[in-house]
Structure formats: C-alpha cells, structure tokens
Design goal:
single chain, mainly beta, Jelly Rolls, 9-stranded antiparallel sheet, 7-stranded antiparallel sheet, 33% strand, disordered N terminus
C-alpha cells in the first residue's frame, strides 16, 4: 500500500509525538475547544499523551488567553509576562527517577531574559528542569547544583521550534533551535533526573519569570531521544507550524 508523505520533510502524514515511546506530556493549543478568540483559559489544556497531566489555572487573574490564527492558521496560548501560568496536574511525577528527558516547544517570546515556558520542580522547589527564553535548556540532577545548557540565541517576536535533550545517565545536556544544535554541556553527577518524589510542574511559571509571548505546544518525553527521534519530532512541528527546521 502506498504511503503519503509530507513533501518538505518526507514524514508519514500519520506521524505524531505518540509514534515515539516515552511520551509523558503533550499540550497543544490546537485542541482547545469551547473558547473564542481572547477568552481566558478557564478550562483544561488537556494532555494528549493519555497520561492525564492536564494543565489548568484556578485563579482567574493568572490565566493566559486563547488566541486564534496566530501561527500557520493555528491558535496559541498567550501569556502576559506578569503572572500568567498553568499548573500541570500531578506534575511532580513527570520525571521521577527517569534516565533522561527531551522537551519540545513551539514558542514566541517578546522580551529578553529568563522567561520560563516549562518548569519541573523537586519537593524543595529546586528546579530540576527548566526550559527558558535565554538559556533555554536547564538541567538539575538529584541534589546537584544547576547546570545551564545554552542553546542557539532566540530573537524576540519570532516563533521557534526549540528542543532540549537531557541525558541523565551520562550527565549531559544539549539544546536546539529549529534543529540547529547548541553546545553539549557536561556537569553534575550521572544518575536520575529527579529525586524519589516531586513537587510541581508549570507552563509559563509565575511572577517576573513568566513568558511574555505565545506558546503553541509543549511535548515532553521521559528519556533522552536519539538524534533521529528528535529530528522526527522537530520536523513534525516544523511542518505543522510552518517553521523551517534544519
């Protein structure tokens, strides 16, 4: 039987993040229902991985808004750079005792500096993984001090496919912008990405560290993907959102 392929990236049309093992979180603004342009996110941003890590915000003033037809005719979740954020249900469990992690986002940020679009925290609120606007990869291994993983620079007001690969077994991390690699970073003690318990996970973070901009999707795997696997997801996102990926 013939299979139809995306002309730009030669990917099977039925490929989704679910096609690769280890998917633990997949949030996508395109699957929000029941909202109009400009409405606050007063419902769940549902986890498409099937694991139930839905994202919500019970405080009305801290809810980001839903904006339609923003990138490649698709909607986004827009954060205000003040206090907007979404809390992931049972998010402290996302990377508990895992050999690595790979995070992807399609994100636009309007301001420089440390603007976090995904955080995963330990019980002591020490962040074990952050994906930022500036050093948009960041890793912590168990009780180690933080080790920054710097990716290629991002320009303001531009959508990117960003990805971060964290190999906890070998204590390395690397970040990518539209498929272009940053430097591999070594540091910390090889081991699990998390302690035996977890505290919370957030989209957008809070206070002055919340992103000023738009988030179309967040995808998280609980292992370090291979180069081929990472590129498949990046190219899927590039095709979906009209972003050129190398």
């Amino acid at each position: 039987m013939n299979r139809l392929f995306d002309k730009a990236y030669r990917l099977p049309q039925h490929f989704t993040p679910l096609s690769i093992s280890g998917l633990v979180l997949w949030l996508d603004a395109s699957y929000i229902t029941g909202l109009n342009d400009g409405d606050s996110i007063n419902t769940e941003l549902r986890d498409l991985s099937g694991n139930g890590y839905h994202a919500t915000q019970s405080t009305a003033a801290q809810r980001p808004i839903y904006k339609v037809n923003i990138i490649n005719s698709r909607p986004v979740v827009r954060f205000d750079a003040v206090d907007d954020n979404l809390v992931i249900t049972n998010g402290g469990l996302l990377l508990r005792n895992k050999p690595g992690a790979t995070a992807f986002g399609v994100v636009l940020v309007n301001a420089s500096g440390t603007k976090r679009w995904l955080t995963i925290n330990t019980p002591t609120t020490t962040t074990r993984m952050i994906t930022n606007r500036s050093d948009f990869g960041y890793r912590i291994l168990d009780a180690d001090a933080g080790v920054a993983v710097t990716g290629p620079a991002l320009s303001n007001s531009t959508f990117y496919v960003v990805s971060c690969v964290f190999d906890a077994l070998n204590a390395t991390g690397q970040s990518f912008r539209n498929g272009t690699a940053g430097t591999i970073t070594n540091g910390g003690t090889a081991g699990n990405t998390s302690d035996t318990t977890g505290s919370s996970s957030d989209i957008g973070w809070t206070s002055t560290l919340t992103i000023d901009g738009d988030l179309a999707t967040v995808i998280l795997y609980d292992r370090a993907l291979s180069t081929t696997e990472r590129q498949r997801v990046e190219r899927y996102l590039g095709s979906r959102y009209g972003i050129t990926v190398s």
